[in-house]
Structure formats: C-alpha cells, structure tokens
Amino acid sequence: MPAPTRPPETPAEAVAELQAGNERFVSGSPRHPNQDAGHRAAVAGEQHPFAVIVGCSDSRLAAEIIFDRGLGDLFVVRTAGHTTGPEVLGSVEYAVTVLHTPLVVVLGHDSCGAVAAAGAVAAGGLRPAGHLGAVVDAVLPSLRHAAAQGIGDPEGIIDVHIAQTVNELVGNSAVLAAEIAAGRCAVVGMSYQLNAGRVRTVASVPRSL
Ligand SMILES: [Zn+2]
Prior knowledge:
- A hairpin with a 6-residue loop joins β4 (186-192) and β5 (199-205).
- α5 packs across α6 and α6 (132-148) crosses α7 (154-172).
- Helices cover 44% and strands 16% of the residues.
- The chain is built from 8 helices and 5 strands.
- It has a 5-stranded mixed beta sheet, sandwiched between helices.
- This is Carbonic anhydrase.
C-alpha cells in the first residue's frame, strides 16, 4: 500500500488530484485509495473532503469510481441533470464553509437523459408529469443559452449546460461567491464521456486556477 499523501488543500491541487485519479480510471489501473477498513475507521470521526461534486444522478457517473477516490474524499450532490435548487446550494455551502472544501466540480456527461428530456420539450413536446417537470424546467434555460449561441450539436449543448450550472452555483450562492473571491475555493465544470471514461474541463470560476 502506498504511503498516505497530504490531501489537496487548494483548488488547483484538488483539480490535479481528480485529474490524476481519472487518468488511472481511464487507463484501467485504479488504485482504489481510501477504501480499506483502516481508512474507514480513520475518517469515522470527521470528514475533510477535498472536492464537492455536483453531478448528474446517471448511474454511470459514480464520482468515487471515475476519479478513483474513496471514503471521505468527495462530498457528492447528485440530481438528474445536475440542477441547482436550494437544497443543492445549501449542500455546497455546507461543504465549502463548514468542511472547508477547496473545490466544487460540476460533473455532466454525454447522452444525458435530463438534457434529452428538456430538449424534447424545447422541440414542442409535452412537459413531463409529476416532479420530473421540475427537472426539465431547470435544464431548459441551458438549452435556450445554447440556441442563442447557435450551438446545436449534442456535445456543445452539454458543455453549455455544464457551464450554465457553474454560473448558477456562483451566481445564486453569495456564500460560494465570497469563498471564491477570497481565493479559498473554485468551481470547475467537467464533462464526462460515458464510453471513454474521461473527464474534460469545460468551464471554471475563476477562469484560471
Ligand atoms: Zn445525466
């Protein structure tokens, strides 16, 4: 077992750690760090996750697996289409202010069903019944942003929705914006390819970490 290393403390260090883990996952050589019984006991008393993941609920987008991390590493908030309602914002604010997590990642992916559902409504289809309509409502503004920019390809639309989610987090959470302004936190949008397993950075606040 490799010697324990110091957890990331800055936004840039946290991004690098996630990218390194994703590279291990993509190449088929994951280390599965922090998943053993000893670490489970070590983190039972308190948590210091180095990244918040605001991700889509898609079953193929399991954060700890695709970033090759373990217990206590990632504070994960998932909804279909990575929406930004008040409970999501509150969860992010808890992580960055109480747990002092230095990075928030918006994690979207290709072939996202929530984006497809919103696209069907935007094309004239019926708004889904029940609470699924709220998911569609949350994604629709991103589709309008993409259309306004002349972006119509599926990958481009996903990128716009991820960037829009980054902007919504920062724009709707004064707490998060203050942490960013103080240099203690950053928000990065990443797009995940279901087939290749690779994440690609598509947006960040601030622009350079
Ligand atoms: Zn999705």
